[in-house]
Amino acid sequence: MAWFKKEKAPESAAPPRSKGGEGMWLKCNHCREIVYRKEVDRNNKVCPKCDYHFPISVMERIGLLVDLGTFKEWDKELEPRDPLDFHDTKSYKERVKAQQEKTGRKDALVIGEGLITGRRVVLCVFDFSFMGGSMGSVVGEKLCRAIDRALADKLPVILVTASGGARMQEGILSLMQMAKTSAAVAKLGEAKLPFISILADPTFGGVTASVAMLGDVIIAEPKALIGFAGPRVIEQTIKQQLPDQFQRAEFLLEHGMIDMIVERKQLKDTLSTLVNHF
Question: Where is the composition biased (Basic and acidic residues) (predicted)?
């Protein structure tokens, strides 16, 4: 049956792929347009097409909000334990160690003190790159310690959230942080000290359901996704299609869930105005 035999043409070696273009372009998470990375970087990591604010690192965030060289980190040595001896495809200890090596920090929250146009503030910033910014025992403890120091020195507290919610590997101990941090924020209210919450993309789960939505002033970045459960889960539960742009910051502002939407380049000035006012 020689008719069906087809001689293969000799394979030509593929030309070497140039690495010059790798990493030069980004796809926007909101408008799905391809944008030039350097243009995004020059624009404070904001999409030039639709004004979507890309996630930024903790140190970039701190650099944008406080006066240069004034931030002093607290309690950076705190790290999580494994009280449940939790295992899924790998142990919780292994997951934590891998995240610590990747990010260079012990857990998903950085706390400390800095100056905003010369005024002392306590600043707490979630790190989404550490296990999705999930809130476990260490995150709850660090946030409470930051609030205790703010109470002692009568300082305002600014919290920047970017989180997927509570950390399942710590079970009920993680869920308890919702009540623990909420009680700490209530003390700020009793002491008449301002608590300002900034919601970055994304802010979800137990963090949204507790401390993130307790701010005296709640600010969101443009186009940020904010909610408790994801839209797909909600649609499957209620058997209805959700409105367009549901859970985006603009939708929440329209429905009274947040106080204002502020572009990244204007955040520091806005915080300065609010802190001076309070």
Answer: 1-10
E strand intervals along 92-222: 109-116, 119-126, 157-163, 195-203, 217-220
Per-residue pLDDT of 51-66, as tens digits, reads 888 889 999 999 999 9
At 44, the pLDDT band (50, 70, 90 cuts) reads confident
**Three-state SS across 135-166?**
ECHHHHHHHHHHHHHHHHHCCCEEEEEEECCE
Q: What tokens does 92 get?
A: 């919780």
Report the predicted TM-score, pTM, of the whole model to 2 decimal places.
0.88
144 is in an annotated binding site: no
Q: Establish whether 124 is an annotated binding residue.
A: no
pLDDT in tens, 90-111: 999 999 999 999 999 999 999 9
**How would DSSP label each residue in 30-51?**
TT--EEEHHHHHHTTSB-TTT-
* Cα 21 to chain centroid, rounded: 29
Of 195, 192, 201, 238, nearest to 223 (Cα)? 201
Sequence ranges of the domains in the chain: 23-54, 55-277
- Name residue, tokens 């006066």: 67
